[in-house]
Design brief:
Order of helices and strands: HHEEEHEEEEEHHHHHHHHHEEEHHHHEE
Number of domains: 3
Number of strands: 13
Strand content: 15-25%
Distance between the termini: 56 Å
Largest sheet: 6 strands, antiparallel
Radius of gyration: 26 Å
Shape: elongated
Helix content: 25-40%
Length: 409
């Protein structure tokens, strides 16, 4: 580490004379090969956390750091300086490193990415995920943050927020933790945190990991999609009250659950938000950042639903188990009543879900809650086939058959 600091000081003294004047708290991470610090704009408006990935624009052989811009140029660069440019799409400022490189008629510029701030909500979410504090203390901590109007935007979400007019949603990570099926006490506490955020006006996230979803290839068609709030709420370990909260979010924009027109409902477009993507320009040209609406129409995949029920019943990857035989079926039956209350289901969909509940009650195979012993593959296969048979009568119905996936919307 001492050697890395010495190299860094050499770099700051020569190549980064301009940066040395405007940055403080410089640090070098030898594991990720990144340079970080707090840099001040030329208008002296305050220091901004910044990070430079040396893998992208500098070569490092363990001794020397050489600016080579993405490794595309054999000749080294010199005269590096930092400059500030306005962001033409979202306002504010972008911070860049600009160098003179041999073999290039113009200076080469690379962005100095702004580091994402670590907010108090991030500390709290990390504590909940690791189980470092009793869940009731986490609920109290969240209440304290909300009362003092702390920002609830989680760290991983901030690039997504940059493109959105509407971004007041529950942190995605909280839903992700809930999907992992923690024990009953933590599940109840996490649901309390979600309800607390909702009472302060935060909606459930409309999309989960949307960038990962967009990155799926054609070979992934038919693979279960990334669980969303509704998918998680239908799991056996989540109480029916959470499902009601999710459905109330859909009613806020005066949305009908069987809507087929994608053009209307501007409030739904606002809830779903926007996303950013890059359009490359030429081989050496800088990419053009574009903004587009995220799709707000979605389908609840019935296969995903019964897969979640199967995991809670049979798979040791989730910690939830039935307190008594048939509890999962009883919970699912209560959720069907919630769906009926909010007028989500037509008669056909109600029949399908009731068939799933009946199939759960008819099972005689051992589950995780049984005292018979370890569940073998044959028992798991039998459980899955029982659930799967419940939806087979509906496979020929057009609105439940989408890209080789059974789904209801």
């Amino acid at each position: 580490m001492t050697k890395a600091i010495a190299v860094l000081l050499t770099l700051l003294g020569i190549a980064f004379a301009q940066i040395d004047r405007t940055c403080i708290d410089i640090a070098f991470n030898s594991e990720t090969n990144t340079l970080s610090g707090k840099c001040q704009p030329r208008d002296n408006s305050g220091y901004i956390p910044s990070e430079l990935d040396l893998n992208d624009c500098f070569g490092y052989d363990g001794t020397n750091i050489t600016p080579i811009y993405h490794g595309n140029f054999a000749e080294s660069c010199h005269g590096c300086e930092m400059f500030v440019a306005p962001d033409p799409w979202y306002g504010g400022a972008e911070y860049w490193i600009r160098c003179t490189c041999k073999g290039q008629s113009e200076k080469v510029a690379v962005p100095l990415e702004a580091a994402v701030a670590h907010e108090p909500i991030d500390e709290l979410l990390e504590s909940v995920y690791l189980g470092e504090a009793p869940i009731d203390k986490s609920v109290d901590a969240l209440k304290w943050l909300l009362e003092r109007k702390f920002d609830m935007k989680e760290q991983g979400d901030q690039p997504w927020y940059n493109a959105n007019d509407y971004c007041d949603h529950v942190p995605e990570f909280l839903i992700t933790i809930l999907n992992k099926s923690p024990d009953r006490v933590r599940t109840e506490g996490i649901c309390q945190m979600i309800q607390l955020l909702h009472s302060y006006g935060y909606s459930l996230p409309f999309h989960m990991n949307f960038v990962s979803y967009l990155g799926r290839g054609l070979e992934d068609i038919g693979v279960p999609s990334i669980p969303g709030s509704l998918d998680v709420a239908l799991r056996s370990h989540c109480p029916p009250e959470l499902l009601g909260l999710v459905l109330r979010d859909y009613l806020r924009p005066l949305m009908k659950f069987d809507a087929t027109s994608f053009a209307r409902f501007p409030l739904m477009k606002r809830w779903a938000g926007k996303y950013r993507f890059a359009e490359p320009i030429g081989f050496f040209g800088e990419p053009s950042m574009e903004t587009a609406d995220q799709p707000w129409w979605k389908f609840t995949n019935v296969l995903n639903t019964i897969w979640g029920l199967f995991l809670d019943l049979m798979d040791n990857s989730t910690s939830w188990t039935e307190a008594y035989r048939g509890e999962a079926a009883d919970v699912f039956g209560k959720k069907i009543k919630v769906l009926i209350k909010y007028q989500v289901l037509n008669q056909l969909e109600e029949n399908m879900l009731r068939g799933i509940a009946e199939s759960m009650r008819s099972m005689t195979t051992p589950t995780k809650a049984s005292n018979i012993g370890v569940i073998d593959d044959r028992d798991s296969q039998c459980c899955w086939e029982t659930l799967y048979r419940a939806i087979l009568p509906f496979k020929s119905i057009k609105q439940h058959w989408i890209l080789d996936i059974w789904g209801s919307h």
